[in-house]
Amino acid sequence: MRLKAAILMAVVLVATACGGQGGPTATQQATEADIDLTGPVAITLWHTQTGGNVKALQDMVDKFNASNGKQITVTLSYQGTYTQLYQKTLSAIQAGALPEVAVGYESFVADYQKADVVLNLDTYVNSKKNGLDKNSLDDIYKTYLDTVRFPQFSNQLLSFPFTKSLLIQYVNDDLLKEAGKSTPKTWDEFEAAARAVAKKGADGKPVRYGWAAPTSASTFNGWVLSRGGKLMADDNKTVAWNGKEGVDSLKLLDRLIRDQVAYVPKGFDYQTDFGTAKVAFVQESSTGRPFFVSSFKQPINWEISGLPQTDPGKAKTVQYGANIIIFKSTPEKQLAAWNFVKWFNEKDQTAEWAVKSSYMPVRKSAADTDALKTSWQKDVQGKQAFDLSGTAVPEPNVRGQQDIRTVIEDAITAVVNQKMTPEDAMKQAGDKANAILRDNQP
Amino acid sequence: MAAPAAAPRSRARVARRVRIAPIGKHLFLIVLAVLVAFPFYWMVTTAFKSFFEATQFPPTLVPQQWHFENFPAAWAAAPWGRYFANTLLIAAVVTVGELVTAVLAAYAFARMRFRGKGVIFVLFLATLMIPGEATLIPNFVLMSRRYLNLYDTYWAQILPFLATAFSIFLLRQFFLSVPNELQDAARMDGAGHLRFLWSVVLPISVPALVTVALITFLGAYNSFLWPLIVTSSADVRPVQIGMSQFRTENGSQYHLLMAAATLVIAPVVLLYLVAQRYLIQGVARSGIRG
Amino acid sequence: MPMAARTSSRRRRVVTEHLQAYAFLLPAALILFVFHFLPAFGAIYISLFRWDIVQGPFRGLDNYATVLAGARAQEFWLSLGTTFTYVLFTVPFEMAIALAIAYLLFGRLRGRGVYRAVYFLPYITATVAAAVVFTWLFNPTYGLFNSIVEAVGIGPQKWLDEPTGLFQLIGSSFGVSVPVWAAGPSLALIGVCLFTIWHFVGFQIVIFLAGLTNISNEYYEAARLDGANERQIFTKITLPLLSPTTFFVATIATIGALKAFNQVYVMTNGGPLDSTRVVGYEIFKTFFQQGRIDLGSAMAFILTGIILVFTLVQFRLAGRRVHYA
Asked: Most CB within 10 Å of its CB: which of A243, B245, C113, C127?
């Protein structure tokens, strides 16, 4: 076993070393994306999937290995949490021992690319021989490709969608009905509905809340977008979420928490709270669906809706999730990796992955697959979430965004703990975030 | 510090008349034991609960229904057999190796005279003071093909742990309190350092050696981050990675998580119970010596 | 002539002893050198450059200046303060509790083996699993601590999500407003401290027990013959003869607490509002969230320096108080 691993390792490393010098084979062809794969190619994919998703992913990889017809073998390797994967990748960059493929967030790509190790996929997407045609490209929701286009790195396409989801709203329709309200379309309607649902017991303590608001920078970004705001200035040098939309969002949260209509849940408790009808609204990732369902003690009438909006005609929310990064190696391995990534995002595969993992399918046409149609008969809310795909907007993918997320979350925590006014919290957070952006200019 | 003084005093006062004091002692120990062991108890019982019972408030102290199926569910989630075998192999080699290097070095620091002793000792100790984050990247580079070429092997998980300043320091403290008369007597008999170490120091240090072995084994058994970073295939990976992979990405499936945690901890509890016999044996032996 | 012969034979003995001692040290020294010192030199090298993912220009001691007096100084000193609070609220308590229990478990006592096993459980429990249990105990909605607290008549607490200082919380429950400087460590930090104490008490008990076992029975018997009572035996025999072990535990626990990272990472992630952000966490964040391995390395060596000073002071202080046989 060790021998096998050692040989594999040696092959990988020799290949990496050769690739680093930009082999002569690449220049003879039109581009290195247009070559033919001849011999067998083995590539490794570092991932972070746990629980049932591992099996689903492994099944799909096995299928690819058996059916790609080009002797490409993909090996999955679990690398802990995203932070641990980042730690390892950072080390691997120093050691020159990167895998061919790894999953990661946009902020990771922005960091890795300082070392110029991430493969620009434009060449591959545009390749006549191995790329995607216009129809196929247009079939992918624009937001998922926008998020992996990096303005700080001359707008290159660095990585491709992998585990995508949307910020949506979980709504308990029974509670709304009881309160005589319908699904809110605007933030004003939302506030009224949340207040109508909230209930206090005889001792004055809340027994039911309108809104569970987990502290999350992505959710905050969604609030800003839904109020018509922007997240970044056009030149990407300063943040824009610290304006009126940000302040209004925090004011609403502050108000409803003071009146005990809203609360900040711990961890994933909002799932259990929603499942036991202790709260009517949760704004969270669409991927949590199965966990919400598994916490239902009795059947609940519930739906997934978009976030409340200032202008429901121009609805917006954020999209989450990781992408799949191909590192520079040899033309053969790069092409093999691209073949896998392309295959994984084809109609049938993106549908299969969506069914098994509850992530979002990235293609519009996936809705036509039998797999998803069958799945949506049970998972009605999955379809409701999918129908919101067009409203999703990427979060900023600039360097420093990871730090800025902490700044945003600190601002929210300061407000909900009544340590700062929404205005002060936004001002301070905006200043901090802009300082981080200044420090991180590439 | 009030507690240790108070209990013996009360015992001294009444010990000859009635044996009430042990009851007080037991009471104190039981109350603390409940506090200390509670998280452990909570983990084991939660492992048998249903999802709903596990998230119920107020919580139940004893499962209303025993869900044994949580364990097969947890067991099915990862190649645990392989992981356990790897961990036991790595932990055993590390424990034996570290014991050897630590005994030798600690003996030198405690009972031999040589130039630079103080400085070398502080240098050894300094290895405990550097935060692991700082050396992680250089250590990874060291393991890569450019240098030792040990990435994704057992050796990468064993070699760095074959000596620690922790064990050396601990054993040094014990070896220092071996009476000088014993060393003088051994020298009179013409015994060199190795003989004195082997036939006098080691036998009377059994409790300390077992303690070091236990702590080393546990450290190796529980190590997670370094193996994760320095391996990539399940063939050589340890059990804590299985535990981590079991973690549910997005949910509060506490009952299954606790079942996995219980599975992982069980072998160590057994090992401690075995080791404890030797700890007590050590007590008996040092009693004979006295 | 005989004088010269004696000194030369003594010198030969000294040389042999030296060689033998170095031989004894060699295996450990080799491992420590390759896997601790070499990487540390690597990290020092990194800390002298701009190394933002990749190696940049040489910066001399600029990274150290940035941490100590520049853009990162405020965060760094704040986290250092939190670290000292953390050490103060963990190490003495761990040691006192562990020593008390070990002393009780050492005497003749029915069920000693069972107690010993139970008290060792926290240390056996893997940090990840233990942290899950604790974050759950502290859970504001579903946790056991709030059921207890409410049963006693105190309102529910936010525990690990509570950035407010402990004294301020106590003050405000009596309607007294406590000034900011006297707010004390946040309830969240206290929670992390409780977790730490719980986790390490079992570890220290085992070491104290080994130390107690190492004290020869002769001393106790002699003291009893002299008519010493239990208290005198404890203060005049046990404590002094246990001092090498106590010194070891104090040193190791202090080093560990000054470096603490894992406990904070699994419990609070440095929050809420940075109230649990110790230096170890700050270093981790700089390395593996910001990718600034240059500044992270500089911080790590500043912390190493602080720990080294602490340890040397401990050695100096202990020099006269630790009794070896």
From this structure: B245
